[in-house]
Design goal:
Immunoglobulin-like, 3 domains, 4-stranded antiparallel beta sheet, 4 helices
C-alpha cells in the first residue's frame, strides 16, 4: 500500500515541475504593457497645413525612428519632420535611432480643395528594455482642420491693398510732384514667407524692396489658433542702428532677414 502511494507521488512530480516552470513565464508576460498603453498615440492639427503625431512612451520602453510610416487621406503628405533621437545598439535591429518618454512628429500637408478634415494613418514599432519587441502597430484617426489662413484673408485683403495704392497716389498728387519714388503697399514693399522647420518653431523670411527698411522693435507675433498656444520667444538678427526722423535712434533692417518664433 505504501509502495503504491510513492509510485503515485513520483508519477505526479513531472506534472508539478511543469506547472512551476510555466508560472514564471506567464508571470513575466503579465508584466509587459499592452502596446497601446506602452506607446500612447494621439494626433492633432497644428495649423491649416501641418499635423502633429505624438506618442507618449512609458518608462522602460522605446520606439524606432525608422519604423514610423504615415499616410493621409484628404491631403497630400509632405516629408515628416522628426526630432533628434538617441542612438542605440539594439539587439533586434543593430545600431538604430530611438525615442523614449515622448516623441512629436510634424507632418506638413497640402489639403485637397474643399477638405475640412483628413484621416491620418500611422505605423510604428517599439520595444521594452526588458527584451520584448512588439510587432508593428497601426493606428488611424480623423483630424478636423482649421480654415486656411491665406484663403480667409484673401478676400478682405484685396480692398485694403487697392485703397492703400490709391492713398499713396493721392499723397503724391497732394505734394504736387511726379518725381517722388513710387510707394508700394506694405504687403508689396515687405513680402514675407512663413515655414515651420519643426513642430515648435515658425520661421518668417522677410524680403525688403529697394529704398525700404523695417524696425526691429516693431516686429510682433501672436498665435490665433489653437487658442492655447502662445509665443514663448522671438529670435531676430542684429540690425543697423539708424537715427530715424519718427522714432529717433533705433535698430532697422535694410536687407533680407529671417525671424524665428518659438
Amino acid at each position: 500500500m505504501i509502495k503504491n502511494k510513492w509510485i503515485r507521488l513520483l508519477s505526479a512530480l513531472p506534472l508539478l515541475w511543469g506547472a512551476l516552470a510555466l508560472f514564471p513565464v506567464a508571470h513575466a508576460e503579465d508584466e509587459f504593457l499592452d502596446p497601446e498603453v506602452a506607446f500612447k498615440f494621439s494626433a492633432r492639427a497644428l495649423d491649416a497645413n501641418t499635423l502633429e503625431a505624438r506618442w507618449q512612451i512609458a518608462d522602460g520602453y522605446y520606439m524606432y525612428r525608422d519604423k514610423f510610416k504615415f499616410a493621409v487621406e484628404g491631403a497630400t503628405l509632405g516629408a515628416p519632420q522628426f526630432p533628434a533621437g538617441r542612438m542605440k545598439e539594439d539587439e533586434f535591429f543593430g545600431k538604430v535611432e530611438t525615442y523614449t518618454k515622448d516623441v512629436r512628429i510634424a507632418l506638413p500637408i497640402q489639403r485637397t480643395p474643399g477638405a475640412t478634415s483628413v484621416t491620418l494613418k500611422t505605423v510604428s514599432q517599439g520595444c521594452a528594455d526588458a527584451g520584448l519587441c512588439y510587432t508593428p502597430q497601426e493606428a488611424s484617426v480623423s483630424i478636423k482642420l482649421p480654415a486656411p489662413v491665406a484663403a480667409a484673408a484673401a478676400a478682405p485683403a484685396a480692398a485694403p491693398a487697392a485703397s492703400s495704392a490709391s492713398a499713396l497716389d493721392g499723397l503724391r498728387s497732394l505734394l504736387g510732384t511726379t518725381n517722388m519714388p513710387k510707394l508700394l503697399p506694405p504687403d508689396e514693399a515687405f513680402p514675407v514667407a512663413a515655414a515651420m522647420p519643426d513642430a515648435q518653431t515658425a520661421r518668417f523670411d522677410y524680403t525688403l524692396t529697394a529704398d525700404t527698411y523695417l524696425y526691429r522693435d516693431k516686429l510682433a507675433y501672436t498665435v490665433k489658433s489653437p487658442a492655447d498656444v502662445k509665443v514663448a520667444s522671438v529670435d531676430t538678427p542684429a540690425g543697423d542702428v539708424k537715427e530715424d526722423p519718427t522714432f529717433g535712434r533705433t535698430e532697422v533692417y535694410h536687407q533680407h532677414f529671417s525671424a524665428s518664433v518659438t
